[in-house]
Predict the 3D structure of the following.
Amino acid sequence: MTTKLSDLSVPIFVQMLTSLSALLDKAATFAEAKKIDAKVLLESRLAPDMFPFTRQVQLATDFAKGPCARLAGMEPPKYPDVETTIAELKERIAKTIAFVTGLDKAVIDAADDKDVTITIGGQPMTFKGKAYLAHMALPNFYFHVTMAYAILRENGLDIGKRDYVGKLPA
């Protein structure tokens, strides 16, 4: 049985982005209950040299739409990083989910051995499609989703692993 790239990418991105959107709902409820401005959460970071929550969400969406687009042989859509509210972040997540689920799975599946070139630190790096997904895209995606979760947890939200993982597929 061959594992398809579309099965290793699109459903995983959708599951985790959906859980990230649900975490945003919990953040809104938390801010309201604690009578704090939600911007406090959105601007929080784990360390001074790390990105704040909002940027973590933006990067998570970038590491979902970018790899899926590249594997499908197209340029990733560019979303301006202008979100300043929970509602705007949820809209960005929804737009990303719509984009990745709208791609042709057969084209993604054909990218196993296709060259994918990205620029890191000003230097081009080329991977085969499967290696790009496994060793670059997914780790970076999970990192930013995890950092967003950790920032909310650090700020006192009562969330756990079930909130992070979200709804598991049947």
In short: The radius of gyration is 16 Å. DSSP finds seven helices and two strands in the chain. Residues 23 and 131 are 30 Å apart (CA to CA).
